[in-house]
Every structure is written in structure tokens, then in C-alpha cells.
């Protein structure tokens, strides 16, 4: 009794707005501009003179703004400090990659007379240490260890943090309570103490150190991802995805995660820097992998001669400072490019 | 048999240890091919009702029966099958599309999830869906932020229709749009309904939109339906004082508005007034109204009203 068929007559009866003549004129006008493929209902809506959305001219869906990712890249590359960071990091990465070509010998081998100052001997531009090892070779090979540990620790930390944070934030309730407690347990233990304990338990090798650093740095990622997921899961496009019958995995990884990532990427660049610092600190204290040179271990061995040959500690120290600085500059640049509130993407 | 029937539905949210009853005993039906308008103030529970019907929120009690099946407790494959049949168009076209997915991804993902169209033909199907709502196929490679509000709402409609549902819940689909774009979207919805044989539950706070669009109107106040009927009869003779106030509030050219037709704010659903829930704002309230909660009683001719002071005799 309330079917659609009663509607057109009702509309005509009640709406005195449009007279019959106007009706016909409107219908004719609509009919003229409509494609013949849809010969329907002008009599349905006699009082309305607006074309429906499908019949409006939509020839051009203009590109209103550059696509998000490209725009973010532009913002990033037009930021001088970010580009400076990128250049410094490129030099460090290049040195690390080229190390076996530049210095094919083991950097832990004695190469010449000990304790030559930088510039003293053209064979050793940065001098030699107390055991006659080439400082430049150590620096270049140390970059490999530092970057490898920094990158793999961050990757592992991101993986764990994203999984835990996404699960907690998306499902909420008891799952969230349990996982948040777990995160808090890790965060209440001072990070570096936990790291020393973990490394002391395991054999000091590069993968073990990377995993131990990841175990210390994932809670921060998890907290951030959880907060992002809690905010984004309330958005309409997530409700639409649920209404369309998407599974949890698809909603987490395809719908929410790409929107949650920008601040995580920023955090990751800083986490790499922190991981490099942690590795250096461990090696400085002699807890690092004894079979490889790292910047931290170079500073550690140079410590005894700080008053007579300070360059032994200063050279790898400068390397650490520059690398960490470059990663922080990149992090700032990424933050500016990816954070919509700072006018980058949007 | 109605396509959708909602029976004594309750739903709410827990907040601060107290239950907020957003939907508080709602019953109605949507027949196949019918457009039912749901009107009410902001915060009266319209969108919550839509979310419960869509199973985005679980009902506390009562039944949502779709095509003879109670969907309230469905899980897994049967729930997925229901989702193919019932879809929703959201109010805010800027929040309802994933900003990091291209239109092609947005429109083909539902087909992939439901395994409806062979992989190689999904892009074609998505392009067809775009053309159905009046957008060019080239839009497939674009991202949501490249579209205007009206265009985005058309994308939302295309996404809702890509699974060929039978019921579409339109949750204030035009209230975020300019007036001229509103008419376009309404006409598009009307044409799609005629072409595809859809049923709509059309939610709006704007009576003139509902009046233009709906066969039958439900008036909702504070989680409950207070009056129903065909829109002609409701507009000709509103029986509930709240409906009367809503109709009075519609601006008409040439009619000078007297005092505000309705004073005060919608009470919180956390703190529902005793008796008739409208009585603190009602001009006709009597002591009876403060004590006894009127039920929605049928008056014939498809009308029903929840008011102690509505005429007793049946309407014809």
C-alpha cells in the first residue's frame, strides 16, 4: 500500500508548485538532454528542475592536486635540511657498501706502525691505532656494522610493534588490555639495562644485538600504531569496509595500516639513529661482537689513549654524530612532508 | 513479506559504566521497492539505528529480519551474504573513502572479497559502476582527494551499489553537500532506484529532503519512533506534537516564521525523561504525559503515533 506506484500521483496531487504545463516542459527539457539509453522517470519528480548527477557534464574530473605520494616527495626534497641529511646518509651508506672494495683486508689486522697521527702517513689518511690498524678502514667497515644493526633492529622492531599495536588498537577490549600491559611491562624496564641483560644472556653477535635492540625499541612503535589504529578504525571508510564484508586482515593491512604509517615512518628514521647509538654504546662497553669493527668498539679501544691520541676516539665519534644527525634530519623532513597538519600532504 | 523488518530493537553504547540507549524499542518494516524516510534531530539515534541494521553495531535486544532471516546474530559466511544484500551510503563523503586507495582499488576490492566477478573483468565492472553514477571511467586511476564533495558522494554510491544490493541505507547522504549538488544526488538516487529496483531507508534531519524522496516517513525522537505514515498524510495532518514542530520548522517562502516551533534541546539518551520522552518540550503535556510512556498505536491508513493526545478515532 505504500509502494512506489502511489508516489508519483501523490507528488502531483500535493505539490501545486508545478502545473501540468510546467511538468511537460520540464519533462521535455530533461528528455532532450538525456541520452536515449535511460528513458525513465521525469514524471517521478515533476517539481525538480535540477539534472540528476549522472546527467551533469562530468567530462573532466580535473586533477585538483598532485597525487599524495608525489606531493610528499616534493615537499621532502624542497627541504634543505632534509636533503642535507639524505646526502650525509648517502655518503655513509656508500662507504659501507664500498668497504670490501676500498679495504679488502680485514680491518682488525695490523696494517702499519702503530699510533700514526692523521696526515702523518699518506697510506693512512686517518692514522693508525695502538695496534697499528688502519683507522679509515675501521671506520668504513664499522659503517657496515652500524647501519646493518640500525636497519635490521628497526625493521624487526617495526614488525613486532606494528603487529602488536595494530592488533591491540583494532580489536580493543580484552585483547587491547592484555597487549597494553605487555607494552607497559617492556616500557617500565629501563631500555638500556634490558638491552645489556639480553646481550649478556645471548652470545654477542650482530644478529643477536640487532634482535636485542629491536626488543627494546618495539614498544614505542606499538604504542604509536595502537593510537593510530584506535583513531582510524572509527572513520567511515573503515565502517564502509566492514559493511562491505571485508575480513579483519584486509581491513587492518589494506584499509587502516596505509593511513597509520606516516608517523611510523618518521619514528622509524629516529629509531635507526637510536639503534646505532645503542650498538655503539654496547660495543664501547665491550659487549659488542668482538669479531667485527664497529664505531663503538673503536671509541672504546681509543679511550685509554684519550690524552695522547684523542683522534682514535674522535674520528669514529664524528662518524656516529653525523650518521645520527642525518637520520634525525631525514626524520624531521619526513614529518613535515607526511604530516598533513604541517601543510605537506593533504 | 517485507524486505527488512525491525522488531522492538534496542541498542546502545556503554560509556563511563552507564548504558546510553541510542535505539530504544524501534519497530518498522521496509517493503521491497519502497523508500522509507527516517527523520529526527541530530542525536536522536538515526545513525545508530542504521549501524545496527548494517550490523556495524550489535543489537542489545530485538530482531532485524532481512528477507525472512534474523541477521542480528549472523557470523561468518551468512553475515557476508547479508552484506551483499544491504549496503550503506555515508553522510560525509570526505571521510567515507580511503584516502590512500585509488578509485579502482576502492571499487574492485568488494568484488574481490565476495568473488563476484572474475579477476580480469573487475576493472571493467568498476568502470561500469562509475558510469552508472555519472563519472568517467578515467576516474579509476584517481585518488579520492582529487574529487569534489558531490563527486565523492557519487563514488560512495557507486561503491554501495557495486555488490548489487537490494536495500541501501542512505545515512544523510546529501546533508554535507551544497543545495544544487543535493538535488543532483537525490535525482541520481531516484533514478538508480527505478533502474535497479532498490529499496531505501533514507535517513535525514531535513524534512524537505525526506518529503521529496520518501514514500513513507518514520519520525524518530530520542531513540524511539513517535509517528509513522505516508508522507502525504503526515504532512497534511501531523498527529504528534513533535512532528508538527518539525513541519513548522521547514522554511516556506512567503510565510513569516513566528516563534521557534520547538524550544529546548534534545535530552541526553543517557538520561531519558520519565513518561512520554517528549513531554519536557511538549506544548500539550499534561500530568498523564509525565507518568505514562505512550506506546506507538496504529490509527489505520498506515498511520501510527505515540502520543496520549492524538485523536482516538481511526483515520481514513
Question: Would you kindly provide a brief summary of this structure?
Answer:
Chain A is an all-alpha fold and 346 residues long. Chain A has helices spanning 6-14, 20-33, 68-77, 80-102, 135-171, 173-188, 191-201, 206-232, 236-243, 248-284, 295-302, 311-338. Chain B is an alpha/beta fold and 316 residues long.
Mean pLDDT of chain A, to the nearest integer, reads 80
The helix/strand order of chain B is EEEHEEHEHHHEHEHEEHHHEE
The count of helical stretches of chain A stands at 12
Strand content of chain A: under 5%
Rg from Cα of chain B: 20 Å
Subunit structure (chain B): The complex is composed of two ATP-binding proteins (GsiA), two transmembrane proteins (GsiC and GsiD) and a solute-binding protein (GsiB).
Family (chain B): Belongs to the ABC transporter superfamily. Glutathione importer (TC 3.A.1.5.11) family.
Keywords (chain B): ATP-binding, Cell inner membrane, Cell membrane, Hydrolase, Membrane, Nucleotide-binding, Repeat, Translocase, Transport
Protein name (chain B): Glutathione import ATP-binding protein GsiA
Could you explain how this protein is built, in words?
Chain A: It comes from Xanthobacter agilis. The complex is a heterodimer of chains A (346) and B (316). Chain A has twelve helices and no strands. Chain A is mostly helical. The longest helix of chain A has 37 residues, at 135-171. Chain B has ten helices and twelve strands. Chain B is α/β, with parallel strands linked by helices. Chain B is globular, with a radius of gyration of 20 Å. The model of chain B has no long low-confidence stretch (mean pLDDT 87). The two termini of chain B are 24 Å apart. At the A-B interface, α1, α9 and α10 of A face α2, α3, α5, α6 and α8 of B.
